[in-house]
Amino acid sequence: MATRRPARKGSAKGVAKGVPAEARASAATGPQDERRLVEAAQNDPAKFDALYELQFERVYAFVASRVRDRASAEDVTSEVFHKALANLASYEWRGVPFAAWLLRIAANAIVDHAKRAAREFPAPDDPPEPANDLVVQASEMRAIEHRAQLFRLVEQLPAIQKQVVLDRFVEQRSIKEIAQRLGKTEGAVKQLQLRAVQNLRAQMEGSNG
Amino acid sequence: MANRSLALQLDEVVQAMLVSLQPRREKTPDRELASLARVAQELRDLPREEFRTALKSDLQRRASTSESTAAAKAGTGEEQVGTVHYMRPGLTSITPYIIVRGASQFIEFLKTAFEATERMRVPAPDGSIMHAEVAIGNGAIEVSDGSDAYPAAPQAIHLYVDDPDATYARTLQGGSTSFYAPTDDHPSGDRWGAVKDPFGNHWYIAKPRGWTPGPEGLRSVQPYLHLREAHKMIPFLVVAFGAEAMGVHASPQGVVHHATIRIGNATLEIDEAHREFQPMPCHLHVYVPDTDAVYEQALRAGATSIEPPRNAPYGDRAAGVKDAWGNSWFIATYLGNK
Questions:
Q1: Were both Cys, which of B4, B184, B222, B300 would link to B158 (CB 3.0–4.6 Å)?
Q2: Which of B33, B39, B92, B114 is most worth mutating to test chain A (most A CB atoms within 10 A of its CB)?
């Protein structure tokens, strides 16, 4: 029997110990803007907010692509930002994007998380750690940037479409339940879902073009 | 009509993604649908807004209260961060804790009937099982041998599987008795069968087919509580655990025919006890961010204390309460390995 199992999104065991500086993880703002934000937060941790807003989707997209479930993605993402805040003074501007520094913290946090889980629940059928997972490839970084951008665009959807996307994909509610919650027919909810995904695709194509 | 058709097709793709929890390779010669499906696939990892907001607040609090500490420790890379790993790895917010006579045999039954995997076993000095943890699908069950202090307490479990007929057959081979064979006529719309195992537990074996609230993307294992005055359980869980009632089907008189209740990242189901599905007071293990707060909330909601919060030797902040129906709720916050 194959009962339903969580998606195994790549190995959670073999993850990067280092993210190359050329990972092209620079933020949407320019490097100088980012540098000012980092220095402001180094002088006043209360200003870490701005960095969080800028980097949340990127870090979450990276972590979610490498751990096995939402609870783990949230745990690790939380750990990354707490560590970043606590160690912000150690970040030195040497042309390395702040995002790359964050993702290096994330990569290590993912390793730690996987080790914790493996120590408590060894899974003999899991494949050995593949060596090529020790580096984050540029293609993976492009995928992460793409996904982070998609997450940001959800914010800009019309309110009703955004609600359907959140209910369906995050809360994983049924079409029937969403229809009940929104006071709409199931057919209307499916249309809203289609329009939302079409909107996102169009905007992604626009932002990539 | 073409657009409507695309909406239906996309939803079928989304449904498959959410139910199977695995990106399914679709044979989609339709390029339009395929490109939409790629976007939908990526949306599966969309973060929760509540998490984004809560983490920001948490960081703000930390920034405002520990500025000097953070600066002093900066550069060491050794700081122990405030963590939100409140669930023990491998467990979700709600795990059934089944106490049986013959825990070892029960675990063998779970392996045979449900392809369960034993993840942990802690034997007692007399050779019985003090504690064990068994994975079924993407869920888990905790098991221990009954004792005078904790007598056997079978319970009802709603189990989502890919092949309910084969699973049902294996449970019968394992000595279960049938309530009814898998049928497509169950009110949920799912293919659904029901058995009672040799240890007294009920297993509602289902494959999600219809769109009942709850199952998509959720756990293989869901506790199912048959209760008298089930409607009163909902406000208790809301107050005690911050639960959310996801779908309540009740008669005009308010009798709950079925309700799905979410706590954290897991769900349980309740209904009004009926026919052979009578109350089975049971034990549930619930991970929460703050055991002490939930313990107090549960007492305020009418529960009685089994044990006040303590730091358990296995690394949880743990407490226990009993609800008005006789169910025991073991509240826990994972403290990690630190």
A1: B222
A2: B39
Q: Where are the alpha helices (DSSP H) in chain A?
A: 31-43, 48-64, 70-86, 98-120, 138-154, 159-165, 175-182, 186-208
Is residue B262 within 8 Å of B75, Cβ to Cβ? no
Given the candidates 3.40.190.80, 1.10.1740.10, 1.10.10.10, 1.10.3210.10, the CATH classification of the domain at A1-136 is 1.10.1740.10
Measure the CA–CA gap between B248 and B279, rounded to whole angstroms: 19
Q: What is the pLDDT of residues B94-134, one digit of tens each?
A: 999 999 999 999 999 999 999 998 888 888 778 888 888 99
The DSSP annotation for B162-194 comes to: S-HHHHHHHHHHTT-EEEEEEETTSTTSSEEEE
Structure tokens at B294: 């939930």
Entry field: residues in chain A: 209
Residue with the two structure tokens 């199977």? B20
Interface of A with B in 72-91 (CB under 8 A): 73-75, 77-79, 81-83, 85-90
Tokens of A134: 């020790």
